[in-house]
Design brief:
With 377 residues, the protein is mainly α. The chain contains 16 helices and 4 strands. Helices cover 65% and strands 6% of the residues. 18% of the residues are buried. InterPro entries: FlhB, T3SS_substrate_exporter, T3SS_substrate_exporter_C.
Length: 377
């Protein structure tokens, strides 16, 4: 029982198929803190880049609004005529600022996890509608983690703000003694630097949150040993099915091999257990090669086909075993067997000439062929 329980623990790393299925469901590692920090940093950088232009535009607008002549004061349409000028002054810097924010908001949310789109994520889930499951999520480990992150973010930002205000306190008070427009530019300069430093403090949370989200996502994807076995069966097939497929593949390969036997020059046999079909074709190979081979029933079938097509069958037990164990189908025989095979082929070619034209019958091949010890079986 204990062994069975341990096998159900999610101790195994997720398989590529499990990760792919999770991604199809829209479940990837995400860090909201990374997206938030990216937007804040983009706002700070964008503010630093477009701040002077915005300040200059605001100054021009204020100057325009506070320097009205008598005609403009009593003209009810004067204010409406000023709006196009205001839009023209603020349009480019504000649009640039918004473009930077939009770009970083997009990049910050795809850096971790990439771009995913899943219709399954939009489908309603009954377990999320269950109040009991809702309470479990509210008081679960994930909720505790989010609460801890919230407190940590507040603490980091609050401490950063406190130190910034303490450091720039005298500079902030000195703004009241400055004159326009110098105090405006000075205030913007202070605001930009304080904003950049304050936003940079969120990087501390990101550095902690991103590895945690990756670890937590991998933990949720972990599988039991049984799940891995089931997935293997589903993707690779059940053992009995795979065995049947392999058997069919062997049968097909054997039929192809048997179809090549009639093209052989000679069948070297054991004489009962082994049979090897050998051919020499100088146009295809530099040495004799094997067309078919087999033992027992397959060897019997090779001999049977050879008799039907009047292919010479030569009994050379050591050579038959050596070729069978050292040479694959459509592969040239090893160099160490060249002499022995040459003797067999020479005998076969002489026998064909004798059968066609008569004359002196060729001498039988020697009972012992020259086979190196390392090739004997």
């Amino acid at each position: 029982m204990a062994e069975n329980d341990s096998s159900q623990e999610k101790t195994e790393e997720a398989t590529p198929r499990r990760r792919e299925q999770s991604r199809e469901k829209g479940q990837v590692a995400r860090s909201k803190e990374l997206g938030t920090s990216a937007v804040l940093m983009a706002a700070a950088v964008g503010f630093a880049m477009t701040g002077p232009s915005i300040a200059k535009a605001l100054y021009n607008i204020m100057e325009m609004l506070f320097t009205l002549d008598r005609t403009q004061i009593f003209d009810t349409n004067a204010l409406f005529l000023i709006w196009p000028v205001i839009g023209q002054q603020l349009a480019f810097p504000m649009l640039s600022f918004i473009a930077i924010l939009t770009l970083m908001a997009f990049l910050g949310n795809i850096v971790l996890g990439g771009i995913t789109f899943s219709t399954k994520a939009f489908m309603p889930k009954t377990d999320k509608m269950n109040p009991i499951n809702g309470f479990k999520r509210m008081f679960g480990v994930q909720a505790l983690v989010e609460l801890t992150k919230g407190i940590a973010k507040f603490s980091v930002v609050a401490l950063s703000a406190y130190f910034l205000l303490s450091y720039y306190f005298n500079d902030i008070l000195a703004l009241s003694r400055d004159h326009l427009p110098g105090n405006v530019y000075h205030a913007l300069d202070l605001l930009i630097w304080m904003f950049i430093i304050l936003c940079s403090s969120t990087i501390i949370i990101v550095v902690i949150d991103v590895p945690f989200q990756i670890w937590n996502h991998n933990k949720q994807l972990k599988m039991t040993k049984q799940e891995i076995k089931d997935e293997y069966k589903d993707t690779e097939g059940k053992p009995e099915v795979k065995g049947k497929v392999r058997q069919m593949q062997r049968e097909m390969a054997q039929r192809r091999m048997m179809g090549e036997v009639p093209n052989a020059d000679v069948i070297v046999v054991n004489p009962d257990h082994y049979a090897v079909a050998v051919k020499y074709d100088a146009m295809k190979a530099t040495a004799p090669f094997v067309l078919a081979k087999g033992v027992d029933e397959v060897a019997f079938k090779i001999r049977e086909i050879a008799r039907e097509h009047e292919i010479a069958i030569v009994s050379a037990p050591p050579l038959a075993r050596a070729i069978y164990h050292t040479t694959k189908i459509d592969q040239e025989i090893p160099e160490g067997l060249f002499t022995a095979v040459a003797q067999v082929l020479a005998y076969v070619f002489q026998l064909r000439q004798f059968q066609k034209h008569g004359g002196k019958r060729p001498n039988p091949i020697p009972s012992e062929q020259p086979i190196p010890d390392e090739l004997k079986h």
